[in-house]
From TrEMBL:
Compartment(s) where it occurs, according to its Swiss-Prot or TrEMBL record: Membrane
Ranges where the Late embryogenesis abundant protein LEA-2 subgroup domain occurs: 100-197
Chief place where the protein resides: membrane
Protein name per Swiss-Prot or TrEMBL: Late embryogenesis abundant protein LEA_2 subgroup
Length: 227
């Protein structure tokens, strides 16, 4: 009886077929709940900011087209020097009186002049004197004249006074009159948040003689609003 024979088949060319190696598939990464919450909060805040900016733009456009806001205008009518001299400590003492016309050109906007406003007179970079702007309400298309007393002391009085006297000999003394006025705007019955009216009037006067009429030869004023 013949023994069982096992038959082995050898692939051609001496090669052995290999089964492909299957790599393990990593489990899907689930997004973190905290990360999702942060994204939602960020999108929510961003949406609120966009809505607020759009609403603010619409409000500004409505105010502009309905009320046509304009800045108040100011004119320097007169300037009078009541005192200008050297003190014992060699500082310069100055006392001026200035009359200013304030005009509200708005037809539907009133202006509240609040506490803390002031007017100052400067020569070059030296402040000679300063005085407060009174509190008052200015109605629609109103014209108000303000008479403000200014007082002050400046260091290096001899130097400043000598420079002023030298300019006075030419008949042209350059001065800067600066206005800083905190105001609140009234739209109808609504009183809005305070803003500041900043102004600078470049003046040229013929002299600074005390208790004499001073001729304002030139006046160039510019104003802007600051939130």
């Amino acid at each position: 009886m013949e023994a069982n024979k096992t038959k082995t088949t050898t692939p051609a060319h001496g090669k052995t077929d290999l089964l492909p190696v299957q790599r393990p598939i990593p489990p899907p990464v689930m997004p973190s709940k905290n990360r999702n919450m942060c994204c939602k909060i960020f999108c929510w805040v961003l949406s609120l900011l966009v809505i607020a900016m759009i609403a603010l733009g619409i409000a500004v456009a409505v105010v502009y087209f309905v009320f046509h806001p304009k800045l108040p205008r100011y004119e320097v009518n007169s300037l009078r020097v009541t005192n200008l001299g050297i003190n014992l400590d060699l500082s310069l003492s100055a006392e001026f009186r200035v009359e200013i016309t304030a005009r509200n050109p708005n037809e539907k906007i009133g202006i509240y002049y609040e506490k803390g406003g002031h007017i100052g007179v400067w020569y070059d970079k030296t402040k000679l004197c300063e005085g407060p702007i009174p509190r008052f309400y200015q109605g629609h298309r109103n014209v108000t004249k303000l008479n403000v007393a200014l007082t002050g002391r400046a260091q290096y009085g001899n130097t400043v006074l000598a420079a002023l006297q030298q300019q006075q000999q030419t008949g042209r003394v350059p001065l800067d009159l600066k206005v800083d006025a905190p105001v609140a705007v009234k739209l109808g019955k609504l009183k809005m948040k305070k803003i500041r009216i900043l102004g600078n009037c470049k003046l040229v006067v013929d002299s600074l003689s005390t208790n004499n009429n001073i001729n304002i030869k030139a006046s160039d004023c510019s104003f802007k609003a600051k939130l």
